Design the sequence.
């Protein structure tokens, strides 16, 4: 899932600040995180108290976020002091943050300055140059460009000046009774106007926070800047048009007006690579293992058998033949857990491998037996069926490592089946989601793209890293070779299912 970070103050009434940002980011389809610059006591009628974060504490928040869940975009809202602005700039550079959206909150609608001259200077010198886009309103743009803005022509000249001065794209918001809801985006390509409909709704608290957060969310998802701005403006229009009316003053918008998720959609373009979550939570040695075999897994994912399964054109007899061979294979695959149980040094490891044996038997094995029973095959029929060469070789490989291998070597032999199946079937569903509904193929596919199977795969990343953490480079290289050999057997098995000799 794509992630976005808001660095801003808290609005206790929920209409602006980080509360509006988190709602907006969530509704626009990304995981939202926050680093708080200040606490406020406020409601729809005004702010009564502010307690600012220290620069050190803000730095700690940013360190914890960037070193764990790295954001795909960053939105920066109101920051009232030079120390905090400097801290943010330093951390963005330290972690090489991407897709930075700065809402330079400096001037209230009433015209009152919200931050000091010193802080404005720091904002100009340290932060704006790091932004991919800034979103000033007209009074703020007048400060940044040091000129009066009285017309659309003035807006274009001011945006151009800001672009040249600070080296960042500029979304200059109309409003403030100049041209209603028309905003101007200025980039290296020049000026682009976004014409919006003026919505008769006095409850506009937090519109600036919401717009910049929606832009950040859409940049995080991979939209280009113009598309991100267009989608953000559409989202704001919907939130305003919903007509939420709360509080005694200028109330908040209905950020959650479209829970059906229109604005959570990702770009419609096909990704360069079919989507798979298999690699998302892998780290350390587990990730190294999978990366080293991605070529084999991609070849499997694109083999004739799985391609035809996804398209729904796979010959039924060929599918049944695969089910038979895979059932024979699965019986030997389950035995490798028995070898691991026998060699387990402690009770916890015995439970670990016994749990996997039971999971595979209750899930994968049951699905295969149900399918084969539907065509009249019994356990006895499966036992009497001759193994094809690829199946026989793979089972011999598993037995060999089960008998002679250490616990780590056994894990390397068994993992490619578990992780590889998740990878190829997630790619299949990404290309052909309708395949899950196929009366014959759907139950098999579903076994490998459900949340329970994903949890087991992710869990074994942790197990593998823990079991292998003390090994030297030579041992890790040896284990990686076993993993790759098992992955090659996986590929040969898929090719066999498609008819290869």
Sequence:
């Amino acid at each position: 899932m794509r992630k976005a970070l808001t660095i801003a103050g808290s609005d206790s009434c929920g209409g602006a600040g980080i509360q509006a940002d988190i709602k907006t980011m969530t509704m626009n389809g990304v995981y939202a995180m926050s680093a708080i610059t200040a606490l406020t006591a406020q409601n729809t009628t005004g702010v009564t108290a502010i307690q600012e974060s220290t620069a050190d504490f803000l730095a700690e928040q940013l360190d914890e976020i960037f070193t764990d869940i790295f954001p795909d975009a960053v939105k920066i809202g109101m920051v009232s002091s030079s120390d905090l602005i400097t801290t943010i700039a330093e951390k963005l550079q330290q972690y090489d943050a991407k897709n930075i959206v700065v809402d330079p909150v400096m001037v209230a609608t009433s015209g009152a300055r919200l931050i000091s001259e010193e802080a404005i200077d720091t904002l100009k010198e340290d932060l704006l140059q790091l932004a991919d886009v800034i979103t000033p309103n007209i009074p703020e743009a007048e400060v940044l460009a040091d000129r009066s803005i009285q017309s659309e022509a003035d807006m274009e000249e001011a945006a151009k000046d800001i672009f040249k001065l600070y080296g960042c794209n500029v979304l200059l918001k109309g409003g403030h009774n100049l041209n209603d809801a028309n905003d101007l985006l200025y980039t290296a390509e020049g000026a682009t106007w976004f014409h919006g409909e003026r919505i008769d709704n006095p409850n506009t608290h937090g519109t600036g926070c919401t717009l910049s957060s929606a832009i950040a969310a859409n940049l995080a998802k991979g939209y280009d800047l113009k598309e991100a701005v267009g989608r953000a403006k559409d989202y704001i229009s919907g939130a305003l048009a919903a007509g939420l009316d709360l509080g005694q003053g200028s109330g908040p918008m209905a950020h959650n007006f479209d829970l059906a998720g229109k604005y959570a959609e990702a770009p419609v373009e096909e990704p360069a690579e079919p989507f798979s979550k298999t690699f998302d939570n892998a780290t350390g040695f587990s990730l190294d293992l999978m990366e080293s075999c991605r070529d084999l897994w991609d070849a499997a994912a694109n083999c004739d058998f799985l391609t035809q399964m996804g398209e729904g054109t796979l010959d039924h007899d060929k599918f049944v033949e695969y089910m038979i061979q895979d059932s024979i294979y699965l019986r030997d695959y389950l035995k490798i857990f028995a070898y691991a149980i026998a060699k387990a040094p402690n009770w916890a490891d015995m439970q670990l491998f016994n749990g996997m044996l039971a999971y595979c038997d209750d899930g994968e094995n049951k699905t295969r037996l149900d399918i084969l029973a539907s065509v009249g095959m019994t356990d006895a029929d499966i036992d009497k069926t001759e193994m094809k060469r690829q199946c026989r070789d793979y089972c011999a490989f598993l037995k060999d490592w089960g008998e002679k291998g250490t616990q780590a070597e056994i894990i390397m032999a068994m993992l490619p089946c578990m992780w590889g199946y998740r990878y190829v079937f997630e790619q299949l569903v990404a290309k052909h989601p309708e395949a899950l509904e196929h009366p014959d193929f759907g139950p098999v596919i579903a076994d490998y793209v459900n949340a329970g199977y994903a949890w087991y795969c992710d869990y074994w990343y942790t197990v593998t890293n823990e079991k292998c953490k003390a090994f030297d480079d030579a041992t890790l290289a040896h284990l990686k070779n076993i993993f790759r050999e098992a992955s090659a057997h996986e590929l040969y098995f898929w090719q066999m299912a498609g008819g290869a000799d």
Summary: The first strand starts at residue 3 and ends at 11.
